[in-house]
Amino acid sequence: MRWDNLTGGPGAPDAGGALFGAASVVTRTFDTPEFRGITFHEVRARSILNRVPGASRMPFEWTVNPYRGCSHACVYCFARKTHSYLDLDTGIDFDSQIVVKTNAPELLRRELASGRWTGAHVAMGTNVDCYQRAEGRYRLMPGIIEALRERANPFSILTKGTLILRDLPLLRRAAEVAEVGISVSVGFTDTALWRTVEPGTPSPAARLGAVRTLTDAGIECGVLMAPVIPFLGDSPEQLRATVRAVAESGATSVTPLVLHLRPGAREWFTAWLGAHHPHLVERYERMYAGGSYAPTWYQRQITRQVHELAAEFDIGPSRRGAARRIPLPERPAGPAPAEPVQLSLL
Question: CA separation (Å) from 285 to 80, 262, 267, 278?
């Protein structure tokens, strides 16, 4: 595994110098049902605030990622490519070889205290899920949230993990002093589809239950309806069922996002598609012949359908970024902390 002098190349997450040295890596396995088959690589990171590329369409500039790799094992996950920077494969290794930045809370506290930090919005969960199963053992998020709260620093979290409810008291305290936005990702409510494409995640119903708990506690929570999967989760009936369930959860908004297939994710998803839905392989080759994204006409069609359903069920479609209450940040006037770079979610 390549740890020393890791840069990941231009535009890669956490690029910009060595992240941690090989001598700082401790590898562990735990013989418990929830962690069986998963290897954890505990590291002491050298930086934790990552700058989003300027060309990104995301309405925030900085992210924090306490983990690399994700036991949610979503077959379409765009972040799979990042594991290749560690000489790990983007399939099974991404799902089972998890890098844990054990010093993330203390490192964030130090970087936020820097005179060069201007208090920009910090987004979490935009690369891999910060509430994946590993968080239940390592408990990095409470310290991260507390560090942000101490500085009254605005932040947002995007997750598929119901473990976020553990930190509800911390989130409420943080929301008293800073802008806090939460989004839960639920692309569909089809349980058969969920079991095959998102095998390590809580069920869609459980995630929507978390949305209800958060909103009942006064924490605004939107739903990122992502991904809408062509030919498998995009029928009018499926879209209607999902938007209805989102509305019933009390979500403040619903924002659709069609499946995109970047290198790393594309190969893994295509292999899964060939095994489970071989009749769709050719259709996907045609749909994604132009690159990582579905054709613009298809994306607009899905967006229009979801927005019409949202209006029918009395849930407002989100303006860009509004689901997580993310203000467009101003660029820092002076030099910033060390600037590892994060892949864009979109």
Answer: 20, 13, 12, 12
